[in-house]
Amino acid sequence: xxSEISETVETASAGEVAARVSAPPRVTPRAWEVAGxxxxxxxxxxxxxxxxxxxxxxxxxxxxYAIALLGLNILTGYNGQISLGHGAFYGIxxxxxxxxxxxxxxxxxxxxxxxxxxxxxxxxxxxxxALRLEGLYLALATFALALSVPQILKHFDGWTGGSxxxxxxxxxxxxxxxxxxxxxxxxxxxxxxLVLFMLGWNLLRGRTxxxxxxxxxxxxxxxxxxxxxxxxxxxAFGVSAAYTGVAGALxxxxxxxxxxxxxxxxxxxxxxxxxxxxxxxxxxxxxxxALFIQFVPNYAQDISKAxxxxxxxxxxxxxxxxxxxxVSGFLRLAWRRLTxxxxxxxxx
Amino acid sequence: xxxxxxxxxxxxxxxxxxxxxxxxxxxxxxxxxEIKIGNTNPYSGPASVYGTIGKGIAAYFKKVNDxxxxxxxxxxxITLDDGYSPPKTVEMVRRLVEQEQVLFLFQTLGTPTNTxxxxxxxxxxxxxxxxxxGATKWGDPKGHPWTMGWQPTYQTEAQIxxxxxxxxxxDARIGILxxxxxxxxxxxxxxxxxxxxxxxxxxxxxxxxxxxxPTIESQIVNLKNSGANVFFNVxxxxxxxxxxxxxxxxxxxxxxxxxxxxxxxxxxLKPAGIDASxxxxxxxxxxxxxxxxxxxxxxxxDWSAFMQKYYPDGxxxxxxxxxxxxxxxxxxxxLKQCGNDLSRANVMRQAANIKDLALPMFLPxxxxxxxxxxxxxxxxxQLARFDGERWVLFGEIFDAGxxxxx
Lengths: 348, 406
Prior knowledge:
The complex is a heterodimer. By secondary structure, chain A is mostly helical. Chain A has helices spanning 2-22, 27-46, 53-78, 86-102, 108-130, 135-155, 157-160, 181-205, 207-217, 219-224, 229-255, 265-278, 285-303, 308-322, 326-345, and strands at residues 166-167, 257-258. Chain A has one domain (2-289). Chain A contains 15 helices and two strands. Chain B is an alpha/beta fold. Chain B folds into two domains: 19-152 and 286-375, Response regulator (Rossmann fold), CATH 3.40.50.2300; 154-284, Response regulator (Rossmann fold). Helix content of chain B is 43%, strand content 16%. The longest helix of chain B is centred in the N-terminal third of the chain and has 20 residues, at 3-22. The chains are: A mainly alpha, B alpha/beta. Chain A binds chain B through residues 46, 50, 52-54, 57-58, 61, 151, 154, 157, 162-165, 167, 169, 251, 255-257, 259, 261-262, 264, 266, 301, 305, 308-309, and chain B through 1-2, 5, 8-9, 12, 43-46, 80-81, 84-87, 90-91, 94-95, 97-99, 111-112, 115-116, 118-120, 181-182, 212.
């Protein structure tokens, strides 16, 4: 499993990332990319006025998952550290928001950054001892984290409400904006998503990104070149946890309820599925991964009530066969083939 | 707005207008020929053992439809898998209410899952009927007038043990063992409420355990040493077995009250030892399908015929399948009582207006009763004593009606 993943990572994206970060950006595709991106954002801003509250809620979930997946992708995709415990950070983020709102009456707007900072610290501290663990051993350590968090949450029931959880009210739109709660949450998570993706993009395409990838691909060579592996690995852990914590806080606001058993091991595995399906070590991958983990289980249930997870499994296998580098890898290859084909046929 | 999205908006508006034009009543989910009912159940995930309840209910509605439906309307029962995960429940329930436009929700299963949609359902003013959980909080007509439970709550059951003790064991010195969470605390609260002023005098020791503890043997020793002659055992099956065994091993022979979470003969009493289990007392409200005394009972025979015809895959030894047969009968009663006024408000009014409804698989004497101030449909249980082979019902039906300490 380990070797398979790292192999995929190396063949799929190490080269890609290296090429993207080292080569000077070409002008034409970038203009295209920017235009496409702007069109996407514009249509995302129009959607809330077209769709029902239920659909908006689903897309809000997609944005929230995408933030968590980008976080995990920084750690696993770019830095090569496998985590089976990101559901725990998601849970810590959600509970931070819930406890601050419910117990201390803090305005909900503050809870999202606080959840991020708290998870940054927790993730960084967890990353320090985890440094000694590689590959599968780290996966097991994070697995332990995922197992223990629901029970820890139940233990401190004075704060967390025990297994009954905490019920919240969904935040209304501020400043008298004429938006429903669903529309407001949609825009809020879209905004957070855009900011965090910009930050992530800036982080990953520069020195830091190169260092993370170098550590993943050849830690010894990276250290020989003067990369502080220990620092970068803990940093990757912290930033990754912070992203996931922010996502958790947003999910707490959107669902307006937190309960310990929501943040179980299965959630952590779902995140891992999301980044692999979306495409390891890519910025757009988390969006596709989030769409997958949000909608495919529902389609599977619509196809067969008797065995939805078997259908889900079939989807997984088909995706991995057809798009071994994830959806974003597939699109990148398809785009390149397309441009090459048109370039070839163009008369000189 | 792009032309395409404008076209889309137009189509949506048209559809909505059409749907409105054809709908029969003011509230969604009802036409001249159909009543749409929504449900979530854990068909997958950690609690999937309860999935049989959703399947059994769907089978029962099929039977109702085969027999002509309710006032000429067929029931369209839409049941979705939430995997016992609250966020998924929220999503599925919003789909049911906003997209499928169900008239109401029925028997959504689980305490955390229902807690997640509790406020939403009451904000939307959509009936949230007969939720499948034993927690006590669902009977709150003032704070949550659109939500109602069904089965006897943990507090109800505990009050019945308390009444039994007050009447039959006046010199009771009670030791309690309970799981240190909401489930255990709900029982203890009901028990103390039931004992009233006598609680301080009678309860000599309370011991707790965590669900993660490996054993509870030291707690049993402590309870024995406290001089208790009554043991109120609020544990899940794994710990119930240990408690029964340990009490016998150290020669403690109290009046042993065992919560009905753990009163299965097959999974608790037999593994704990038939001798050690003899004379334990617990409670029931449904007919146990494995109990031979119902062999010739009409209710049991009808249930067997139903299982054979509509749910042949279902396990006929499983009490959940009796439950899944009886719950929709309560709902059918409510819908018949609604007549032709199938508005959400009237469904809720009629659900809060059930008088002495006896159902075929209830123990004789058990009845459903609700009122605008009483959102606890079943508040009666019958005590049973284990005779070494099976549970023998004894005494009259106990009624905790109106004694919920909300």
